[in-house]
Amino acid sequence: MSVPSAAQRALPLPEAFSPWRSLLRGARLVALLTLLAVAWAATQTGVFRGDLINAGGWALVQQFFAAALRPELSPAFLRLTLESTLVTFAYAVCGLALSLVIGLAGGVLSSEVWWLVHQRPFVARPGSPWLIARGALALPRAIHEVLWGLFLVRILGLDPLVAILALGIPFGAITAKVFSEILDETPRDALRALLNSGAPPGHALLYGLLPRALPNLLSYTFYRLECAIRSATVLGVIGAGGLGYQVLLSLQSLRYGEMWTLIAALVLLSGITDWLSARVRQVLGAPARLEVNLAPGCEAQAAQLTRATPSSRGLLALLGLAVLVVPLALVYLQPDFGRLVSPRTQALLGQMLAEMFPPDLSGDQIARLLQLSLQTLAMSIVAMAIAGLFGLALAHPAARRERGPRWPYWLTRGGLLVLRAVPAPVWALLFLFVMFPGPLPGALALAVHNLGILGRLIAEAVENVDQRPTRALQHAGAPPLHAFFYSTLPMTIPQSLAYIFYRWEICARETVIVGFVGAGGLGRLLTEQLSSFDYPGLSATLIALFGLTFVVDMLSTVARRPLR
Question: Where in the sequence of the chain do the CATH 1.10.3720.10 domains occur?
Fold first, then answer.
């Protein structure tokens, strides 16, 4: 076999860059607007200011990382860590169970296909009931679970039920949105055949659509379990207990050895969940945790991602596991469901609503909200620009490969696991050690946390892409990195950018939690209003946050459209 010459190994530039050229031609306007938005956001968050670094905080950072060599391993603290881990996991399981109930009902009712099969002709667009169902899910999705927790604490008191509801309500709305998109993007040929043969709409959906959508529905369910564990950790900010609460206490008291022990427990819990999710997805034949870039009605593309229906034995095993774990978690937490219907709860709910309305919409308040909304928007843009750029850079070493050394894969995946396991408020406090308070530390904290999530998602997109063009370039003599840049990367860019824009929607909500620790934006204003019991101002801030989330959702949807 002859060795390729240097001329043969060289990639012809016009042909090598053709994937990039076609990609940029389809999304040139989106790329230009994104660059302008990032430049504006960098200016708003103070990236170009000269007084960013607080040199006096470096000693605390050195102490923090030095403590990694001597974590707290006393029996009493290890017992506390184990109990906190069980509490966090139980919150995540119970919150996920509630969100699935809400998500399944809301996903069906807010899907286009549900309303289409109940009207004739089938090809018509859904009417106002579909819009009402979609709109009803927008408000609970816009409010972060920490805010739900703060409201529910005042009404229900300190009870495990608060954490379950704070996770279940917004997660249910998010799950309903994604479930509806999965149902709408599932091929409808079997559904149409059943409808044309005279089957009732409900039976046609149950037998013609749901089995084909089931692998992706279950895959996303396990992805939400990973998200639920991270959110259950964040609920420690409001004193809900668990690992997040213990991490916050240790950080505030500068007990870094304890904090490293708790971080190790967080990484271990997240790693086990990731592994379990990956194994379940392999059984289901759903290669990706999340698909957010399918064009509505594009059945050929959807068919490639909808694998064979899982076996009844596998479904029964999953159902049996859920039936076992959820009751055990409820028994362990012992939430008081009677508080939901108690007269005290109804009185406190009415009192809080009376105090919040009408909202404070004075001129000064609107001006302040507009300024902080723009600051919050800028924080989310900077965070996602950093996370997306480094996520794309880490996609190659973080992707599983058939050949080559394995240590870059394990090292990169391990680093990404640590980044996403540590809550964003903890990263914000660490950045505030060495930076002056403002929006930039919050943006960097969100960037680091979301890098852990995006890096994993983009790496999986690289793993699932067709590898034949890459192997062809390698067989022609191209180095592995060149083959990745010229073939794999341009093919995964649309899905990777779709992930980035999808995470931007979530990042806009997460700006609230870094604001609670003094990192700027609307979150810091909410903290001030809650501490001063300014409920009219609080309701006005929530309206601004809802409007900001709606705008980001719309911009994200529009930006993802040219990438399909």
Answer: 92-352, 369-563
CATH superfamily of the domain spanning 92-352: MetI-like (1.10.3720.10)
What is the topology classification, in CATH, of domain 369-563? MetI-like fold (1.10.3720)
Alpha carbon distance 521, 425 (integer Å)? 14
C-alpha separations of 141 from 131, 289, 451, 461 in Å: 16, 20, 22, 26
Pairwise CA distance, residues 113 & 403, whole Å: 44
Residue 306, helix vs strand vs coil: coil
- Phi and psi torsions of 435, nearest 5°: -130, 150
DSSP state of 562: G
**Distance between CA 166 and CA 149 in Å, rounded?**
5
Q: What is the pLDDT of residues 188-233, one digit of tens each?
A: 888 888 888 888 888 888 888 888 888 778 878 888 888 899 899 8
Q: What is the DSSP letter of 239?
A: T
Rounded to whole angstroms, the Cα distance separating 457 from 384 reads 14
Going by C-alpha positions, the residue among 454, 422, 428, 442 that lies closest to residue 511 is 442
Dihedral of CA 455/460/466/472: which sign? Answer: positive
Contact between 563 and 293 (Cβ < 8 Å): yes
Structure tokens that stand for 470 in this block:
């890459």
pLDDT band with cut points at 50, 70 and 90 for residue 62 = confident
The DSSP letter of residue 5 is P
From CA 325, how far away is CA 452, in angstroms rounded?
Answer: 27
Give the tens place of pLDDT for each residue, 159-171: 899 999 999 999 9
- Three-class SS of 310-351: CCHHHHHHHHHHHHHHHHHHHHHHCCCHHHHHCHHHHHHHHH
Query: What is d(CA 405, CA 445) in angstroms, rounded to the nearest whole number?
Result: 31
Instruction: Return d(Cα 493, Cα 481) in angstroms, integer.
Output: 16
